[in-house]
Design goal:
Blueprint lengths: L15 H15 L3 E4 L11 E8 L2 E6 L2 H17 L18 H10 L7 E5 L15 H5 L23 H6 L7 H5 E2 L1 E3 L5 E3 L13 E2 L22 E5 H14 L3 H16 L10 H15 L6 H8 L2 H22 L1 E3 L5 E3 L3 E5 L41 E5 L7
Antiparallel strand pairs: 1-3, 2-3, 4-9, 5-8, 6-7, 10-11, 12-13
Helix pairs in contact: 1-2, 2-7, 7-8, 7-9, 8-9
Length: 409
């Protein structure tokens, strides 16, 4: 097989680079905890397992006692990725001039219907395909920034937005200066008439249902596809290089190669913060926990966290902790009007918003001094320049927000 970039092979085709990554991922998953049956004698032959908790419904939650052999296999496979990297590389520089967020730059390639050099494999899609085709992209509609727009000829069209983000994660877990926060989580969406709107915690979909993913936003397409929903043409991402780097960090930590693990994690953190001032230094279980936390921050909304928690044996522990924190948050908001997180952020019972007119209604890097630009990476595309200009209402398309992270009652 060819490496990425060889003989015209792109991330829309199977490559040697991706196959090695997939083999490493399979070994990593095989090393983890999983549900195994106890009601069929001899089902697993001579294999031995170590379990967590007690047997229920004729099953136990366990991993093989020889699990480290699989970590060794994964380590070799991931090293083969780096040795056969081809044209792939971590996006660490934002080359656009008008923005400075390498993390978002990776996702912008998909919005521009281009392939990011960080992608190892994407399922290719086309734009505006015929009825019955399965390659016209459900991704923006299913997982993107929400929109109440209609199914056709809206500004932008409807985005159902199936994935929502826990507020405790958004408010409580990103460090100050982490450029991934605003790219990963949307607090506003689109009305579908060219105007920005706050997302509501009322149960539902589109603008209801809570804060959502922001990594895919049809406002950021070049230009946005407004003819119909579900056919934007954005590719379906499967794996990117940052995932391999952090999976290799996990294997190194498990195999007591902690210095190598730390260096790998810090590659990702230096991209996230733009400097080395937030690099980690840890060992033992603390290092393993930090790697899982870094994966949580890096891949929010990408369908990875649940599987990480299952195979690490910490799903129940983390789920109960999240439930307790959510309960405490709600109780505090009801009792005192806000909840304060350990990082100092506060989620208030009320925020203040005002519609404003910006010269460029599609916003980029955050500016804390301007309520219309903080959080960043929101706003609206200028739909008055598109074929659906007649659907655009008013001239003040942006929201200025005050009190999002601090109770100002």
């Amino acid at each position: 097989m060819y490496k990425l970039g060889e003989n015209g092979i792109t991330a829309e085709r199977l490559s040697k680079t991706f196959v090695y990554a997939l083999a490493g991922q399979a070994a990593l998953y095989a090393a983890g905890y999983q549900t195994i049956r106890t009601d069929v004698p001899g089902l697993y032959g001579d294999l031995r397992f170590e379990q967590i908790g007690v047997e229920e419904y004729k099953c136990v939650y366990a991993r093989r006692t020889d699990y480290l052999n699989y970590y060794r296999t994964a380590e070799v496979a991931f090293q083969n990725v780096f040795d056969n990297i081809g044209s792939a590389h971590l996006v660490t520089v934002d080359d656009r001039g008008y923005a400075n967020n390498p993390f978002q730059r990776h996702f912008q390639y998909q919005h521009d219907l281009e392939i990011s050099p960080e992608s190892l494999f994407e399922i290719g899609n086309i734009q505006g395909g015929q009825s019955g085709q399965t390659t016209t992209s459900e991704y923006g509609y299913g997982f993107g920034r929400p929109s109440n727009g209609g199914s056709k000829n809206a500004a932008p069209c409807k985005c159902f937005a199936a994935i929502r983000i826990l507020p405790t994660f958004y408010y409580g877990e990103y460090e100050e200066g982490d450029m991934r926060r605003d790219v990963s989580v949307a607090v506003t969406g689109s009305q579908g008439d060219g105007n920005e709107a706050m997302l509501s915690f009322v149960p539902g979909s589109k603008l209801n249902g809570g804060i959502a993913t922001n990594k895919w936003d049809e406002n950021r397409m070049n230009p946005p596809y407004t003819a119909s929903q579900r056919v934007s043409g954005m590719n379906w991402p499967v794996m990117r290089l940052a995932d391999v780097i952090l999976m290799q960090a996990e294997t190194k930590a498990e195999l007591n190669k902690e210095g190598e693990a730390v260096n790998l994690v810090n590659q990702i953190r230096e991209r996230a913060f733009g400097d080395a001032e937030h690099n980690i230094s840890a060992s033992g279980e603390q290092l393993k926990d930090l790697i899982m936390q870094e994966r949580k921050l890096e891949f929010a909304g990408e369908g990875i966290r649940r599987w990480d928690m299952l195979r690490s044996g910490k799903f129940l522990e983390k789920a109960l902790a999240v439930r307790q924190e959510m309960l405490q948050m709600v109780n505090d908001i009801e009792a005192q009007g806000y909840h304060r997180f350990a990082n100092g952020n506060e989620i208030p019972a009320y925020i203040y918003v005002k519609k404003v007119e910006l010269e460029n209604p599609l916003t980029y890097d955050p500016d804390e001094s301007n309520p219309a630009l903080y959080p960043g990476w929101r706003g609206q595309y200028d739909y008055s320049t598109t074929p659906v200009a007649n659907n655009v209402k008013g001239t003040a398309h942006n929201l200025a927000i005050k009190g999002l992270f601090r109770d100002i009652q």
